[in-house]
Amino acid sequence: MPRTLENSNSLKNRAKKVVPHMTGTFSRAAPSFVEGVFPVYAQSANGSHFIDVDGNEYIDYLMALGPITLGYNYESVNHAIISQLKEGILFSLPHPKEVELSEKMCEVIPHADMVKFEKSGSNVVTGAVRAARAFTTKDKIAYCGSGGVWHDWQAAMVSRDNGVPKFNSELIKLFDYNDADGLEQIFEDNKNEIAAIVLEPTVYDKPENNFLNKVRKLADQNDSLLILDEIVTGFRFDLGGAQKYFDIKGDLVCFGKGMGNGLPISAITGPSEFMKSFDELWVSSTNNSENISLAGTMAVINEMQEKNTIPHCWNMGKKLFDGWNQIVSKFDLDAKMYGYPIRMHLQCFDSNKQESIAMKSLILQEMVKSGIFMSVLGPTFLCYSHTEKDIDDTLHALENACEFVTKNVKESNYEEYLEGTMPKIYLVYEN
Length: 431
Ligand SMILES: Cc1ncc(COP(=O)(O)O)c(C=O)c1O
Known about the structure:
It comes from Candidatus Nitrosopumilus salarius BD31. Belongs to the class-III pyridoxal-phosphate-dependent aminotransferase family. By secondary structure, this protein is of the alpha/beta class. It has two domains: 6-72 and 309-417, Alpha-Beta Complex (Aspartate Aminotransferase, domain 1), CATH 3.90.1150.10; 90-289, Aspartate Aminotransferase, domain 2, CATH 3.40.640.10. 37% of the residues lie in helices and 15% in strands. It is built from twelve helices and 14 strands. The chain has helices spanning 6-18, 75-87, 96-108, 121-136, 180-189, 211-221, 241-246, 272-275, 291-307, 309-330, 357-369, 388-408, and strands at residues 42-46, 49-52, 57-60, 114-118, 140-144, 172-175, 194-199, 225-229, 252-255, 266-270, 335-340, 343-348, 372-373, 380-381. It has a seven-stranded mixed β-sheet, with helices on both faces. Strands 1-2-3-13 form a four-stranded mixed β-sheet. Pyridoxal-5'-phosphate binds at residues 120-122, 125, 151, 200, 229, 231-232, 256, 430-431.
């Protein structure tokens, strides 16, 4: 039976009337994909696969924008959730789970003496910035990522930053990844004013010329805190996160996404010297001690420890990454995976060597039609439930997509073969 998207489209039309931007997360909304070809609503998911509202099944590589590290509908996590549900979700007092999970995180995360739980990655980055300002009594922040950082809600250079007071932009200083000199210049120009450096330890580029150690040193020399945004790298690159993987030390380290395998939970960790700032800060919210997420996250970390799940993700990722790059080279297409086997990104260049979202959209359009769901604008992620067969099926679909492209496309006219609209770029990378 040919694939239809009837139910997806009808839900989308209803959502347009009642939900701003059709859904609460920009990167999940229809315009982030090839609209008209990609499904718009998911119904259910299991392991590494999901089923859309029209009954079509896909191998997923977006993993709910990153949180799914073990797999969907994961048995031991479900079990923990269900038993906690019977005990209670939220109480008038804290529950032992908050202490137990904090102890567990201090065991697995380097340099963590204390843990503060929150509900989203944005909240913990915003909270860590607040704590750094309070601790240092300075106001300015050096942010890595000149292409757009949006995770601190108060930062005046977030993508789509209308509504953030303009004077805030005076407080934000930007530098590029791997540009330690640029960061040094910021300290030079803003003497004794920088409360913290906020850095994602890596996105797709690898650290070069001792970059991470230089950043650490600049923070120390200038009495600034180093806030590591490990929302994506945490519980994905290593159980100890990027601090362990790259052997660096953050002062306040932010986790989210992968720690909960889809549960709404995030955390800030660090040495007590800095974490104790939260004793006196109103970074506090009713649902922060919600126990389903605490119990489920404990089950996620236990499973990662017991089954040593992360190396499997690296192995499956490597099979996909290498296999992909071999196939596109065979077809002479400049459409390579780039980054890490655990967090990769497809980069396509047309015959004029220009980066081409149209080319990427066309390849991924052909693949989604054969049941492979990869994000056009975002990353490709692996989880513990991806199998060798998933990767083989994906590479097979890629062969077919490359065949279609090389047979039909002439002089980079990729757009002519799109059966829907090109994705709208709101962000430089994922949200
Ligand atoms: C590196 C990074 N930090 C923070 C966030 C914000 O997390 P959340 O979407 O849970 O608020 C994201 C979201 O994609 C992210 O990629």
